[in-house]
Amino acid sequence: MTTAHPNHRARPSIYRHWLEAPVLFFTFLILIATPLLLGGLNAALQALAAESDPNQRTLVAIVLAVVFALFLVAGIVAAIFMTLWSARRRLNQLRRGAVRVGPAQFPALHAEAQAVRAALAVTKRVEVYLVDGRWLSRPIAPISVLGVTSPYAIVIDAALVQEMSLAELRFLLAVEYGHVRLGHVRILTMIDAVSGSLGRVPFVGGFVRVLFSAWTYLATYSADRAGLVAGGNLAAAYSALGKLAVGGALWGEINHQALAQQALRQRGRFFDLGNRLTAPFDTQPMGRFQRLVAFSATPTFRSICPDADLSFPAAEAWQTRTADDADR
């Protein structure tokens, strides 16, 4: 397994997307401002404008400011409490119905997890669990990381382990450890909680998912790059993401040249406005892989992973697509 140079292991800035922090700040700013807009701000301003006495107007302004501040604080505290409660409940349910991976339980998978943990210099405690997703009351992603406090939990659908090789699992595990290393887990857990039980509240789940969609894309992009740094194998990343798209049973029948050409055509539609608008927020497997191809060609990646294996099927076609994207 190719790993980053030891001097770079503790530097997540190498694979963190530079827009992550600004987008997250702007997202939370919108989230905090929304209760004010929905809480009668317009009516309050009208009441303030209707007051003719300057002294009374000042008093009304102070009272309204205090009321809105209390409303905002109460709303934030309530949202955080409900989200954390829902997230802990969700994680406890998953743990009770799963098998924890360790030295005596699926030792090969445990060894891969420890290898990528060391490669990314992850210091926080992380536990890996296998679960049969068919019996869960609410579906989960084939592999995801959740948690509010340490230890965090990487939850893998058992079906995924049966479809993936160890090299492919190494990449997918490294992506989740990348989320831990980059500090994404609490926000990802919050989004998962809101899309679950809190998502039953009208508009809440959909609003939060849309609001955080830009940050989710950037977080996925950053974690994928961490996965490639830890795994050092572009072919494993390609087949792992490809199997997420079509399943392991059908991946052996894929025409790799046709798949690359399909991706190239999809990006080449000049008048496809919808595709143009959504492509920057593409978190689908083949869109994620294209970002990895571009990252693997950067001097930064080649300097920290000089021995990385960058060969994969139909590489020339994918690299042509990367060049086309760079020219736009």
Features:
single chain; 328 residues; mainly alpha; 2 domains; four-stranded mixed sheet; 16 helices; 5% strand
Low-confidence stretches: 275-280, 323-328
- How many helical stretches? 16
Helix percentage? 55-70%
Largest sheet features: 4 strands, mixed
Descriptive overview:
The protein is mainly α and 328 residues long. It has two domains: 10-217, no CATH class; 233-328, no CATH class. Helices cover 64% and strands 5% of the residues. The protein has helices at residues 20-38, 41-50, 54-96, 107-119, 158-163, 166-181, 185-195, 204-211, 213-231, 234-246, 248-251, 256-267, 273-278, 285-296, 299-304, 315-327, and strands at 99-100, 126-131, 143-146, 152-157. It has a four-stranded mixed β-sheet with strand order 1-2-4-3, with helices on both faces. Helix 2 (41-50) runs antiparallel to helix 3 (54-96). The radius of gyration is 23 Å and the shape is globular. Mean pLDDT is 79; it is low at 275-280 and 323-328.
Sum this structure up briefly.
The chain has helices at 20-38, 41-50, 54-96, 107-119, 158-163, 166-181, 185-195, 204-211, 213-231, 234-246, 248-251, 256-267, 273-278, 285-296, 299-304, 315-327; strands spanning 99-100, 126-131, 143-146, 152-157.
Task: Give the arrangement of secondary structure elements.
Layout: H1 20-38, H2 41-50, H3 54-96, E1 99-100, H4 107-119, E2 126-131, E3 143-146, E4 152-157, H5 158-163, H6 166-181, H7 185-195, H8 204-211, H9 213-231, H10 234-246, H11 248-251, H12 256-267, H13 273-278, H14 285-296, H15 299-304, H16 315-327
Parallel strand pairs: 2-4
Antiparallel strand pairs: 1-2, 3-4
Helix pairs in contact: 1-9, 2-3, 3-7, 4-6, 4-9, 6-9, 6-10, 9-14, 10-14, 12-16, 14-16
